[in-house]
Amino acid sequence: MSSSALYIIPTPIGNLGDITERAKETLATVDFIAAEDTRVGGKLLMLLGVKKPLVSYHEHSNNKVIQDICQRILQGESCGLITDAGTPAVSDPGEKLVACCAEAGVSICALPGPCAAVTAISASGLASRRFCFEGFLPENKRERKERIDELAREKRTFVIYISPHDAEDYLKELSDVLGDRKCVLAKELTKIHERYFRGTLNDVSREFASLSAPEKKGEYLLVCEGMPENEVFWADMTVEEHVERYIALGLSKMDACKQVAKDRGVGKGEIYKIINS
């Protein structure tokens, strides 16, 4: 173990038994620990019997905090980076600190360990040779609709993290666009109340909506199959609607027409003629 390095240390996502021996050894050996929430990090260290100084590093930490941690490592200290659960810098705080340390020439060591996305994919039974990690959907409803429209064209299995208070609304929005897609909604992974909802998005959305309020409590993650090879999202659209969909996603009118022509297997001149008639 290097005397001066940043160690990225995954922590359990619900079951303390999932902490690795290497993670425990590293936490006990580093000089200090950068934690997403020092209260949560402190509780974990207490359960592991580890006593180390903690500094706060989270999503909203300013550049000075990042620079201070980086400088301490450059001056010879070793730092362990942890989040509240799972692997740091994977849809969790960490990437800015890692980038700063890498640019400064700090040695970086990433430990393998718990990751909710990988855990859910392995239990999903959906295609997993290639997959897309989406993380959390945008909070803004318009931006979220645009992202869901993009995912409708994604051919790979994709993974979405869903906050408990958003689950019912987000599942309804997803099912409105991707209703027939197979999916698995994972609840409380590795915890006592772990549960999997399987079926189409329409099925899962309806099943979730029928649950009582106490039954809906928990952390969720959705694994959804990608667009089947024989499926086209624009099948029920007019050419004009097809073009407008691409424009809404940020393409210029010319590029949108080119993409529509490619989708439909016709010349772009034919598309121009239709929308300008």
Quick summary:
The protein has 12 helices and 10 strands. By secondary structure, the protein is of the alpha/beta class.
Main attributes?
277 residues; alpha/beta; Methyltransferase, Cobalt-precorrin-4 Transmethylase, Domain 2; five-stranded parallel β-sheet; five-stranded mixed β-sheet; 42% helix; globular
Describe what this molecule looks like in 3D:
- This protein is of the alpha/beta class.
- The protein has three domains: 6-110, Tetrapyrrole methylase, N-terminal domain (Cobalt-precorrin-4 Transmethylase, domain 1, 3-Layer(aba) Sandwich); 116-224, Methyltransferase, Cobalt-precorrin-4 Transmethylase, Domain 2, CATH 3.30.950; 239-275, no CATH class.
- Helices cover 42% and strands 17% of the residues.
- It has helices spanning 21-29, 38-48, 63-74, 95-103, 116-124, 141-151, 167-178, 201-209, 213-216, 239-248, 253-264, 268-275, and strands at residues 6-8, 32-35, 54-56, 79-82, 108-110, 131-136, 157-162, 182-187, 195-200, 220-224.
- The strands form two sheets. The protein has a five-stranded parallel beta sheet, sandwiched between helices.
- Strand 2 (32-35), helix 2 (38-48) and strand 3 (54-56) form a beta-alpha-beta unit.
- Helix 3 packs across helix 4, helix 7 (167-178) packs antiparallel against helix 8 (201-209) and helix 11 packs across helix 12.
- The chain starts with 5 loop residues before the first strand and ends with a helix.
